[in-house]
């Protein structure tokens, strides 16, 4: 009796399930269109779009078919359209809320990003979602684990194991300029893909090739893009730069951890890279091979490049460590905390100097060295307390020596050489730095008061350091971060000298790196004695508009020889070294020093007294009124013939 009742219940349930399944199957197209139309209406209302399609239906139980889809922002050009799309999904995965695309067939896709003047057909993509409130938006945006997992889930969920995409066109157009990617056929076969891509940019026509594979279950992706001298589009128009390479390869996998982190492990490599931008270097930068083996850890509040990662450019390799973290108790008051470090133990020096990208370090090209080097670097910046900033940088050597110079004789300052001053990249004054120049002044013919005043103003430890003052750089970096601009440089006299003698023409980002290496070589190898370096510095320094060298400066301002300068005159000349073209700002209209200069004069005088260059009594008697201009400098306050 009981068995009969159980049997009836089971049969009834099976019949109900059958009827339900049959109903869903029969009305699946109507159900799909109802859901789609509801979603489309919401998108149209939220973003101001017109979305239409010719036909939407189901093929079998698990294939969605769409014909003639168009997405047009209101009063804008068409953003997206295609002729037909067939998507086969995993039915059982879908029942559990997991979208799994098994196969895609797409034909005639046209995606157009068009901007005319300040109006673009993709503006709506940058509008904030009305469904995200201000209170939880910041929480979501700072949960980096959630963001990366959502992105990866979407990526691996939407990538089909099989598919064919034909007649694809993706275009970016701004006024009369455009970039267009045309893909006649993109094939995915058992998670392997390949395609040819035609790239059109204004008058440029390129043929690219791409291939790769992915494994959604193992969360792994590998892709390669290559072409002979592939030129990256859009870069020149947007940034004024030119970037070319022969091949670019990237592969990564997502690893599971037990501590709530998301780990991405992989490798990216570029070969035959060429980069040009006038702010990077006046020459094209060439990198034969660059490679990054990365291990990235993503936590809710931080992104970290683990020190097991490896960077390779040409023959040089090193392990970097980077971490960016948002810290703070309240969400709206979180500040960034950055840590960057490199520790490179002893390695052959030629790995460094032989690997420098061609075009980036012009003066060091062809330099031959022998011996061992080791490098340590640390930068720790907590923006909530900038005074705690840590900065360490040290390049050590062992049995190191220069075998031969390359393009530039780095020891040329030891003897007389020809110096050219540049302004805005153009030569304005050329003269020999040595006895053959009538204005050259040997160090022992320059007033000790002037020598020490300039040194105490610019670099009081010049004769005792090896080219760098990490503490000064640290203080300059703290100040620059506080004011959010490059206001101080922390440069030593050695650094200023190298900048003027070797790098005066090139005002670009790479110059600082080349400057640091040249300073290290000159100071470490004693290529030029310190006294001669200071002599050169005082003889080429700019002391006013087109006033070069201490001989011209002493004559221009005071009608004196450098050996005759007084205490106040020496301090004044030291004060204008940082901004020589603006010396008149220190004076009133009648040629007398501004009262605001008195503090600086007192400071330098006190430093000179501590060095026992002058007495405490002399320091106390310093008077800015003793600076009386004569000659050309005095007449400039009457005639405005130059500024």
UniProtKB/TrEMBL annotation:
Any one cellular-component term (Gene Ontology): membrane
Pfam families in UniProt: Transgly
GO terms, biological process: cell wall organization; peptidoglycan biosynthetic process; regulation of cell shape
Limits of the Glycosyl transferase family domain: 427-586
InterPro entries per record: Glyco_trans_51 (IPR001264), Lysozyme-like_dom_sf (IPR023346), PBP_transglycosylase (IPR036950), Pep_trsgly (IPR011812)
Top-rank taxon, per record: Bacteria
GO molecular function: pentosyltransferase activity
Protein name as annotated: Penicillin-binding protein
């Amino acid at each position: 009796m009981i068995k009969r009742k159980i049997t009836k219940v089971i049969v009834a349930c099976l019949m109900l399930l059958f009827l339900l399944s049959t109903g869903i199957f029969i009305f699946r197209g109507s159900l799909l269109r109802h859901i789609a139309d509801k979603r489309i209406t919401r998108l149209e209302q939220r973003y101001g779009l017109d979305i239409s399609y010719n036909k939407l239906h189901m093929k079998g139980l698990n294939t969605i078919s769409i014909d003639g889809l168009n997405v047009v922002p209101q009063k804008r050009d068409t953003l997206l359209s295609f002729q037909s799309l067939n998507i086969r999904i995993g039915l059982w995965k879908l029942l559990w809320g997991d979208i799994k695309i098994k196969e895609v067939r797409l034909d005639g896709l046209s995606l157009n990003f068009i901007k005319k003047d300040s109006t673009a057909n993709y503006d709506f993509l940058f509008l904030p979602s009305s469904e995200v409130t201000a209170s939880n938006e910041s929480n979501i945006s700072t949960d980096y684990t959630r963001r990366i997992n959502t992105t990866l889930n979407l990526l691996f969920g939407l990538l089909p194991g099989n598919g064919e995409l034909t007649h694809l066109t993706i275009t970016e157009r701004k006024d009369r300029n455009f970039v267009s990617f045309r893909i006649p056929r993109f094939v995915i076969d058992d998670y392997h893909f390949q395609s040819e891509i035609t790239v059109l940019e204004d008058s440029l026509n390129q043929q690219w090739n791409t291939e790769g594979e992915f494994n959604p279950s193992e969360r792994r992706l590998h892709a390669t893009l290559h072409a002979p001298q592939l030129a990256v589009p859009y870069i020149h128009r947007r940034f004024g730069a030119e970037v070319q390479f022969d091949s670019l390869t990237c592969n990564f996998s997502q690893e599971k951890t037990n501590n709530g982190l998301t780990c991405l492990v992989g490798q990216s490599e570029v070969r035959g890279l060429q980069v040009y931008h006038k702010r990077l270097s006046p020459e094209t930068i060439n990198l034969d091979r660059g490679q990054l083996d990365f291990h990235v850890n993503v936590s809710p509040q931080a992104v970290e490049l683990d020190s097991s990662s490896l960077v390779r450019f040409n023959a040089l390799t090193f392990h970097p460590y980077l971490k960016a973290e948002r810290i703070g108790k309240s969400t709206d008051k979180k500040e960034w905390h950055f840590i960057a470090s490199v520790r490179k133990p002893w390695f052959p020096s030629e790995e460094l100097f032989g690997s420098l990208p061609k075009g980036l370090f012009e003066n060091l090209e062809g330099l031959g060295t022998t011996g061992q080097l080791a490098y340590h670097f640390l930068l720790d910046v907590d923006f909530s307390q900038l005074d705690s900033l840590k900065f360490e940088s040290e390049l050590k050597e062992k049995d190191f020596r220069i075998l031969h110079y390359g393009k530039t004789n780095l020891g040329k300052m030891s003897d007389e050489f020809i110096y050219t001053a540049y302004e805005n990249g153009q030569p304005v004054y050329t003269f020999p730095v040595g006895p053959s120049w009538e204005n050259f002044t040997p160090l022992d013919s320059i007033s000790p008061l002037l020598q020490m005043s300039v040194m105490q103003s610019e670099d009081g430890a010049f004769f005792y350091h090896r080219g760098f003052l990490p503490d000064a750089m640290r203080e300059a970096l703290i100040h620059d971060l506080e004011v959010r601009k490059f206001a101080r440089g922390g440069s030593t006299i050695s650094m200023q000298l190298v900048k003027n003698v070797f790098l005066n023409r090139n005002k670009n980002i790479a110059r600082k790196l080349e400057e640091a290496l040249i300073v290290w070589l000159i100071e470490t190898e004693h290529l030029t004695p310190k006294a001669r370096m200071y002599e050169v510095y005082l003889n080429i320094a700019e002391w006013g508009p087109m006033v070069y060298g201490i001989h011209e400066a002493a004559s221009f301002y005071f009608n004196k020889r450098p050996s005759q300068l007084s205490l106040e005159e020496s301090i004044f000349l030291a004060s204008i070294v940082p901004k020589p073209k603006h010396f008149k700002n220190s004076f009133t209209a009648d040629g007398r020093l501004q009262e605001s200069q008195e503090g600086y004069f007192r400071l330098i005088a006190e430093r000179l007294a501590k060095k026992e260059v002058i007495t405490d009594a002399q320091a106390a008697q310093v008077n800015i009124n003793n600076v009386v201009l004569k000659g050309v400098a005095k007449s400039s306050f009457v005639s405005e013939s130059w500024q």
